[in-house]
UniProtKB/TrEMBL annotation:
PANTHER family: CYSTATHIONINE GAMMA-SYNTHASE, TRANS-SULFURATION ENZYME FAMILY MEMBER
Keyword terms: Pyridoxal phosphate
Record keyword Phosphoprotein present: no
Ion transport in keyword set: no
Protein name: Cystathionine gamma-synthase
Taxonomic source organism: Priestia endophytica DSM 13796
The protein's required cofactors: pyridoxal 5'-phosphate
Signal sequence annotation: none
Xref: CDD domains: CGS_like
Homology family: Belongs to the trans-sulfuration enzymes family.
Length: 391
């Protein structure tokens, strides 16, 4: 079955009693035991809940893995994965990285005597150079948040296999519709399901999929022990989101490409980071390992004063954190998603005060371009620019 069909079938026909087409929301914390020593398979919802099972099975099918586990957020999912690391272990991870992942490593994981090396995984030689005796895992975001660096998954996974490392891929930006890292040999895939999988900016959730059962059950054990579960209502919303994922991703991408091409030609813009542009260094790599380029892009502006101007004046595009929903959102990574990364580190990786990130929605692309065009024209006429020039 093709993924478009699998997506639509997510969670279908789970209720034999009524024939309900969608998985019902089992708003239950506990389940009656038929007899002493017997169970329906469900005892207590921290351990398992039928709506959650439906979502977990769906995401395992879509990512081509053995076990899916649904968490209360992307960070809860990433935290459970980091519990696989023990005292003395070493982790190699992408340098340009979601700020929350960086925070949990710096403030929590490192306290447990786990060593962390941030590497530009785009250059796979750097991964190789940093593998040590105690290296246990390689964690990759591709494309990265927010600079859209692309890592060659074939090469990175080959290095990990050679050194017996677990490969973990944060697939949030791509979704299983566009990229399936487990098929390429990764061990674990993680999602902030709050993004494209939910798709409507109305749910927070996280998903982990494991290629092998044993590792997946370990993650599930941690989840049950900690209790970082996704509630049945949220599971239902994610199942619903999955059904339209293919259509949404196609439209996100169509709009993102149009906007990226248009932005590249604007005199107020310094650089555009979108892997669907032939000028992007990761263009050929992403074409090799994914079905598309996605709906995320970032761009740097030539004048810092344009940043607040855009954030305050854009009308169709909304100034808000997060990504992957139907509405186009603009984010200022240095002050929002990546604020926990020290300024010198941010500047070194390129998350400067001139960088903006765009999560391109599914509106009409021309309306989005028009919004930018009008704001750029206003800016050029405004006092703000005058002040910037005379400073
Ligand atoms: N991974 C990536 C790439 C993200 O962008 C985010 C959030 O923005 C997360 C993980 C964390 O997910 P959540 O916000 O659902 O905890």
């Amino acid at each position: 079955m093709r993924i478009e069909t699998e997506l639509v079938r997510s969670g279908m026909k789970r209720d034999a009693a009524t024939g309900s087409l969608t998985t019902p929301i089992y708003q239950a914390s506990t389940f009656e035991h038929p007899r002493l020593g017997e169970s329906t398979g469900y005892d207590y919802s921290r351990t398992a809940n039928p709506t959650r099972t439906s979502l977990e099975e769906a995401i395992a099918v879509l990512e081509k893995g053995e076990v899916g586990v649904a968490f209360s957020s992307g960070m809860a999912a990433i935290s459970a994965i980091f519990l696989l690391l023990e005292k003395g272990d070493h982790l190699i991870i992408s340098k340009d990285l979601y700020g929350g992942t960086y925070r949990i490593l710096e403030d929590i994981v490192k306290k447990n005597d786990v060593e962390v090396t941030y590497v530009n995984t785009e250059n796979t030689e750097e991964i190789k150079r940093n593998v040590k005796e105690n290296t246990r895992a390689l964690f990759i975001e591709t494309p990265t948040n927010p600079l859209m660096h692309v890592t060659d998954l074939h090469e990175a996974i080959a290095i990990a296999k050679e050194h017996d490392l677990l490969t973990i891929v944060d697939n949030t930006f791509m979704s299983p519709y566009l990229q399936q890292p487990l098929v390429l040999g990764a061990d674990l895939v993680v999602h902030s399901a709050s993004k494209y999988i939910g798709g409507h900016n109305d749910v927070i959730g996280g998903l982990v999929v494991s290629r092998c059962r044993e590792l997946g059950e370990k993650i599930r054990f941690y989840q049950n022990a900690i209790g970082a579960i996704l509630g049945p209502q949220e599971c239902f919303l994610l199942l619903r989101g999955l059904k339209t994922l293919a259509l949404r991703m196609d439209r996100h991408e169509e709009n993102a490409l149009k906007i990226a091409q248009w932005l590249e030609e604007q005199d107020l813009i310094d650089k555009v980071f979108y892997p669907g542009l032939e000028s992007h260094p990761g263009y050929n790599v992403i074409k090799k390992q994914a079905k598309g380029f996605g709906g995320m892009l970032s761009f740097s502006v030539k004048e810092e004063a344009l940043v607040p101007f855009l954030l305050e004046h854009l009308q169709v595009v909304t100034f808000a954190e997060s990504l992957g929903g139907v509405e186009t959102l603009i984010t200022f990574p240095a002050r929002q998603t990546h604020a926990d990364i020290p300024e010198d580190v941010r500047n070194e990786i390129g998350v400067t005060n001139c960088l903006l990130r765009l999560s391109v929605g599914i509106e009409h692309g021309e309306d989005l371009i028009q919004d930018f065009k009008e704001r750029f024209d206003e800016y050029k006429r405004s006092e703000v620019q005058h002040k910037a020039y005379t400073r």
